[in-house]
Amino acid sequence: MKSLSITSGANNVGAYINNINLKDIDQNQVDEIKETLNNFGVIFIKKQNLDPESYQSFAKTIGQPVVYPRLKGLDEKYPFINVIERKPDDKNLSFGSSWLHQDTSYLANDRPRYTMLMGIEIPVGQGNTIFSSGFNAYEKLPEEIKEKIKNATGVFSSAGPIAITRLEREKEMGIKSSESMQAEHPIVKIVKGKKTLYISPGHLMEIKNVNKEDSNFLKNFLIEHVNKKEFIFSYEWSKGDICLWDNLSILHMASEIKKCKRVMHRITIK
After folding, report:
1. Domain segments of the chain: what residues?
2. Disulfide check for 254: which of 73, 78, 97, 191 has CB 3.0–4.6 Å away?
């Protein structure tokens, strides 16, 4: 089969993979998809409309799907597919909204690397997913900031500011809230030789291994930095679209949805 057709997303955030049918791909194309994912951080594949079997099978070509502990699986046959549903009468914040974040940054070990979403039911004009490139944000940092954070670590907690969107969802679903988890990670990561920011504002509590007087300043500076419009791409969904991203290099958040229904299928991948 021929090589993939790839075009960059807005602000050079992520890449579209064009003219592909994920039900019919060979190993060379799988390898190209993985390479594109590593190089760009997030990939967008339009109007695939995969059935659960095909969706879960594609996830397994990327890595090992894992059960996400805070959301229920689709059913016993497809435990890795989580249903994220926003109902028209929901008044709470949308799950994963309001704060850019990198999924499961609060886990010390064995963190899932990738997150994948597929649009099942999409409201018109609402429900975009916001992506910010850690690659681009790091590249544009002032040199003095790069020097200050080169050995810095972040303290990340599941009880960070974004936790409110999870707690509300757990309450709705009748899931008992788990104890908070906390971990420390370097805030500068290297993916395929490229440096990227790993700061997950929705989970970041503190920056360590920097001068004490710099800690709060750097935390606030970096959070503001990754939210700059020049690093952001707001992805507008269509039914059947797939977005797949690397949590080491891409930050994301859901945009707010009001008085509309939105259904997504999510898979978490190591």
Report:
1. 5-269
2. 97
Residue 223, helix vs strand vs coil: helix
Lowest-pLDDT range, 9-18, 23-32, 104-113, 184-193? 104-113
The pLDDT of residue 181 is 87
Rounded average pLDDT over 40-53: 97
Residue-wise pLDDT for 155-190, tens only, equals 999 888 787 655 555 555 555 556 788 999 999 999
Characterize the bridge pairing of strands 262-269 and 129-133. Answer: unpaired
DSSP-assigned letters across all residues of 153-207 = EEEEETTSTTHHHHHHHHHHHTPPPPPP-EEEEESEEEETTEEEE---TTTEEEE
- The CA–CA distances, whole Å, from 224 to 6, 129, 219, 221 equal 30, 18, 9, 5
Among 5, 49, 1, 45, smallest CA distance to 27 is for 1
Q: Average pLDDT for residues 93-99, to the nearest whole number? A: 59
Dihedral sign for Cα 103, 182, 111, 198, please: positive
* CATH architecture classification, 5-269: 4-Layer Sandwich (3.60)
262-269 vs 65-66, strand pairing mode: antiparallel
- Which residue in the block uniquely carries the two structure tokens 């969802």? 169
